[in-house]
Design a protein that fits this description.
The protein is of the alpha+beta class. It folds into 2 domains: 201 residues, P-loop containing nucleotide triphosphate hydrolases (Rossmann fold); 126 residues, abc- transporter (atp binding component) like domain (Coagulation Factor XIII, Chain A, domain 1, Distorted Sandwich). Helix content is 24%, strand content 33%. It has a 6-stranded mixed beta sheet, with helices on both faces. Strands 13, 14, 15, 17 and 18 form a 5-stranded antiparallel beta sheet that branches. The chain has a 4-stranded antiparallel beta sheet with strand order 11-10-12-16, with no helix packed on it. Strand 6, helix 6 and strand 7 form a beta-alpha-beta unit. Helix 3 packs across helix 4 and helix 4 packs across helix 5. The longest helix is centred in the first third of the chain and has 20 residues.
Length: 421
C-alpha cells in the first residue's frame, strides 16, 4: 500500500515574544533613565527579567491525508491554520515533530505569494512553474488554460504590480490550480474574488481531486468547506480538537466556539487581512433595534439601524457593505451602497456611516454582521467579518405558537398567504 501523500506527527511551532513596551511620557523617560543603573543590577540578580515569553502557535498536531482527499481546516483567527500550511509549504520549519510529503507541493497562502511584482503575468507563470520543478515545455502546454481560467488575457503582459487585488488573486489561483503539483495547499484566498470567480474556483478544486491530487483547504466559509471536504480538522489555540467527518467537524466548531465571544473584542483590535489598504479603518459598530443599543437578541419584525465608526487617513469615496450571515457563513442579507447607486464620502478623521434596514425577518438562530469598505473593482480598504453577532430567539410571525427555526424552515421569512379554490 503506497504511503499517504501527507503524514504529520506531533508537529509543534514555538515562537519567542517580548511584552510590548508601554507608551512613556518625557517625565517617565527621564525617571527611568535615572533608575536604569539600579535596574541593570537587579536584572543580573534576577535572570527571569530577561527571559522571553514562549508562544506555541502549534502543539502536538498529528494527522494523515490520503491521495485524492480534500481536507478542510477550520478554526478561529489565531488558531494556527496558516502556520500549519506554512510549515507544510516549507516556508517555515517546525520546532518539533515530523512531516512526510510525497510529491510536488503547490501553495496559495496569500494573494500573489511567490510572484515577483516587477515581472509580467506571463513571466510569473513561468517563474512559478520553474519553482515547482516543471520544465518549460510542461508550462507551455498548460499556459493557455491558465490564462483563460484567470480571465485576464488583456493584461497578461502587464507587470503584476499594476494588477488590482482581484486580478492578482485570479492569476495566482489559476497558476496554483493548473501547474503539476500532487499536493495543493490553499489558505483563505476566495474571500478576495467576486461571486462568479469563487464558484469557478470551488468547481476547479473539486476537479483537482478527481485527477488524484490532494488538497488542504483553509477557510472561514463553512458552506464551502462542507461542500468540498469529506473530512475536516478543527484547530483551537494551536491544537487539534477534532478530526473527522466535515458535518460533525462544523457542528463541533460551532458548538464549542459560540460566536457571541466576538462582541467582546473591540472591532478596531481585530486582525485584518493582508489585502486591506486601511486608508480608512473601521473602529466600531453599533446596532440599534427597538430603541435598544447593541441588543443580543433582535426582534425579526422591528427595523434595525447599524452605525459604523470609521477613521479615515484622508478624504476618500468608497462603497460600504453589510453582510449578515448565519452560523455556517451563508449570506442571508447583503446590502451595499452600490446597490443604491450611492458612494460614501469619507472625510479625513472620524466618520459615522449609518445603514437603516427593514426588519430582519430571519428565522430563529445565531447570525453575524460583517462590514466592508471598498472601492469597487479596485481596492479593499477594510473588512471585518463577524463584526457583530446577534440572535433571533423566536420567529412566530402569525402568533401560531410554532417557532420557525432556521434549517428546518429556510433562512428568512417572507410574508405570504395560502388560497385554495
Amino acid at each position: 500500500m503506497p504511503d499517504s501523500p501527507i503524514s504529520v506527527k506531533n508537529i509543534g511551532k514555538k515562537y519567542q515574544i517580548r511584552e510590548q513596551v508601554p507608551y512613556q511620557t518625557l517625565a517617565d523617560s527621564i525617571t527611568n533613565s535615572l533608575k536604569s543603573p539600579f535596574r541593570r543590577i537587579t536584572s543580573l540578580h534576577n535572570p527571569d527579567i530577561n527571559k522571553l515569553k514562549e508562544f506555541w502557535a502549534l502543539k502536538d498536531v498529528s494527522f494523515e491525508v490520503e491521495q485524492g482527499e480534500i481536507i478542510g481546516i477550520i478554526g478561529r483567527n489565531g488558531a494556527g491554520k496558516s502556520t500549519l500550511l506554512k510549515i507544510l509549504s516549507r516556508i517555515t520549519s517546525p520546532t518539533e515533530g515530523t512531516i512526510k510529503i510525497h510529491g510536488r507541493v503547490g501553495s496559495l497562502l496569500e494573494v500573489g505569494t511567490g510572484f515577483h511584482s516587477e515581472l509580467t503575468g506571463r513571466e510569473n507563470i513561468f517563474l512559478s512553474g520553474s519553482i515547482l520543478g516543471m520544465k518549460k515545455r510542461e508550462i507551455e502546454e498548460r499556459f493557455d488554460n491558465i490564462v483563460k481560467f484567470s480571465g485576464i488575457e488583456k493584461f497578461i503582459d502587464t507587470p503584476v504590480k499594476r494588477y488590482s487585488t482581484g486580478m492578482h488573486m485570479r492569476l495566482a489561483f489559476a497558476v496554483a490550480a493548473h501547474l503539476d503539483s500532487e499536493v495543493l495547499l490553499i489558505d483563505e484566498v476566495l474571500a478576495v474574488g467576486d461571486a462568479s470567480f469563487q464558484k469557478k474556483c470551488l468547481g476547479k478544486m473539486g476537479d483537482i481531486t478527481h485527477e488524484g491530487k490532494t488538497l488542504l483547504f483553509v477557510s472561514h466559509n463553512l458552506t464551502a468547506v462542507k461542500a468540498l471536504c469529506n473530512r475536516s480538522i478543527v484547530l483551537e489555540e494551536g491544537r487539534t480538537k477534532f478530526i473527522g467527518d466535515t458535518d460533525k467537524a462544523v457542528d463541533f466548531y460551532l458548538k464549542n466556539n459560540n460566536l457571541s465571544y466576538i462582541n467582546n473584542i473591540p472591532v478596531a483590535e481585530r486582525k485584518r487581512e493582508s489585502n486591506c489598504s486601511l486608508r480608512a479603518k473601521i473602529l466600531d459598530i453599533m446596532v440599534l433595534s427597538d430603541n435598544q443599543k447593541n441588543p443580543n437578541i433582535i426582534d425579526p419584525f422591528k427595523p434595525v439601524v447599524v452605525y459604523i465608526k470609521v477613521d479615515a487617513n484622508s478624504d476618500v469615496r468608497c462603497s460600504a457593505v453589510l453582510i449578515i450571515s448565519d452560523e455556517i457563513q451563508r449570506y442571508c442579507v447583503f446590502d451595499s451602497s452600490i446597490l443604491h447607486l450611492q458612494d460614501i464620502s469619507l472625510k479625513q478623521g472620524i466618520n459615522i456611516i449609518e445603514c437603516h434596514m427593514s426588519p430582519l425577518t430571519l428565522f430563529s438562530g445565531n447570525y453575524s454582521i460583517g462590514v466592508e469598505l471598498n472601492i469597487y473593482g479596485a481596492e479593499q480598504i477594510d473588512r471585518v467579518p463577524d463584526a457583530y453577532t446577534f440572535v433571533i430567539d423566536e420567529c412566530d410571525p402569525k402568533k401560531s405558537g410554532y417557532n420557525c427555526k432556521k434549517g428546518v424552515s429556510g433562512i428568512f421569512y417572507v410574508d405570504h398567504e395560502w388560497k385554495c379554490s
